[in-house]
Amino acid sequence: MSQSTVAKRYAQALFELAASQNLLVEVGADLKELTKVLETSDELISLLSAPKISKTRKKELVAQIFSGAQPAVVNTLLLLLDKKRVNEAVIVAEEFQALATAAQGAADAKVYSTRELTEAERAEISNAFGKLVGKEKLNISNEIDASLIGGVRVQIGNYIYDSTVASKLEGLKRLLVG
Q1: What is the pLDDT of residue 30?
Q2: pLDDT score of 91 more than 90
Q3: Contacting residues for 80 by C-beta, under 8 A, at least 6 apart
Q4: Are the beta carbons of 45 and 38 closer than 8 angstroms?
Q5: How many Cβ atoms are within 10 Å of 84's Cβ, its own excluded?
Q6: Contact, 52 vs 106, CB < 8 A?
Q7: CA of residue 50 relative to chain centroid, distance
Q8: 60: Cα within 13 Å, side-chain hemisphere
C-alpha cells in the first residue's frame, strides 16, 4: 500500500472528525502551520523518527510543541507516531486541505505569473477558471516566475491552463523549426 493511500485514509478520518465537530477551518489552519513547521525544520522529523528516543518522549515533545493546536490535530500526530508514519504528516495535511476545499465548493489553484497578482486579478481568475472546473471559487496561491515573460499559467489539480508568452514562443518555435 502506497504512502499516499495510507495518508488519504488518515486525512479522510481527520476530515470526518473535524466536519462532525464543525472545526474544518480551525483544523485546516493548524495543519497549515504544522506543514510549515515540518517543511522548514528537518530536525523535527529526524527527532520524531529517531529510534533512540522513546515513543513516550516523542509524544511529550509533540504535545509540548503543538500545545495550542486543535486536539484532533495533536491526536493525529500521536497516532502517526504510534504507527511509525510521522513522515507522512505533510501528505495527510495536504489531503485534508483538498477534502476541506472540495467540501466548500472550491478548489486550490496555483497561478504562475511574472508579478504578484492584485486582489481584483485573483478574483477575476477565480471566477473565470472556477467555472471551467465546476467550482464556485478557487483558493489561489500566486507563484512568481520571471521566465514566463508574460501572461499566466493556472494549475488546478491535474489541469494546466497555460497562456504565457514563454509557452506561445515555444509553440511558435516548434512550428517554425519543426
Answers
A1: 94
A2: yes
A3: 10, 86, 88, 89, 92
A4: yes
A5: 12
A6: no
A7: 26
A8: 5
Cα separation, 159 vs 156, whole angstroms: 5
Q: State how far the Cα of 96 lies from the Cα of 148, in Å rounded to an integer.
A: 31
Q: Which residues contact 118 (CB under 8 A, 6 or more apart)?
A: none
Alpha helices in the chain (DSSP H): 3-20, 24-40, 42-49, 55-65, 71-82, 89-103, 119-132, 165-177
Model pLDDT, residue 3: 58
- Cα separation, 75 vs 81, in Å, equals 10
Query: What are 151's three cell numbers?
Result: 501572461
| pTM over the 0.85 mark | no
**Is 162's pLDDT higher than 70?**
yes
Q: Could you tell me which residues come within 8 angstroms of residue 67 by beta carbon, excluding any fewer than 6 positions away?
A: none
Task: Count CB-CB contacts under 10 A for residue 29.
Answer: 14
> Is residue 34 classed as helix, strand or coil in its secondary structure?
helix
> 47-55 contacts: CB < 8 A, separation 24 or more?
48/81, 48/86, 49/86, 49/87, 55/81, 55/82
Q: Which residue has the higher pLDDT, 133 or 17?
A: 17
DSSP structure string for 47-85: HHH-TTS-HHHHHHHHHHHTTTS-HHHHHHHHHHHHTT-
